[in-house]
Design goal:
113 residues; mainly alpha; two-stranded parallel sheet
Length: 113
């Protein structure tokens, strides 16, 4: 029997992404035990409130290495500014290199869930 999808599990994983690195929505979903549920990761991050201000939501990008469009105007620009502030570079197609910047949990010295 599969466990229930927990936003808190998503937040714990997002907190492990180091500064200057990114993870994809699908990667976070798979690490949380819910492969092919990337959209739910997006919902979890969109639901963040002040009580979870320590969650680096901006470090989660789409599978193409791009910042996903938002319903709120300027949301994508803000995410890109935060990432660039951590040293992440974008190409002329507004994409970052997942080969260069993607977080590899097996290289992470952080704690497990």
């Amino acid at each position: 029997m599969m466990q229930a999808f927990s936003y808190e599990d998503i937040y714990k994983l997002a907190r492990r992404i180091p500064r200057g690195r990114v993870a994809t929505y699908g990667q976070i979903a798979a690490l949380a035990g819910f492969p092919r549920h990337a959209r739910q990761v997006g919902y979890a991050l969109a639901a963040l409130r002040d009580s979870h201000a320590d969650v680096p939501w901006h470090r989660v990008v789409n599978a193409g290495g791009a910042v996903s469009r938002r319903s709120d105007p300027g949301g994508e620009d803000y995410q890109r500014i935060l990432l660039e502030g951590e040293g992440v570079e974008f190409d002329n197609r507004d994409r970052l290199s997942l080969r260069r910047y993607q977080w590899r949990p097996d290289e992470d010295s952080g704690s497990e869930l």
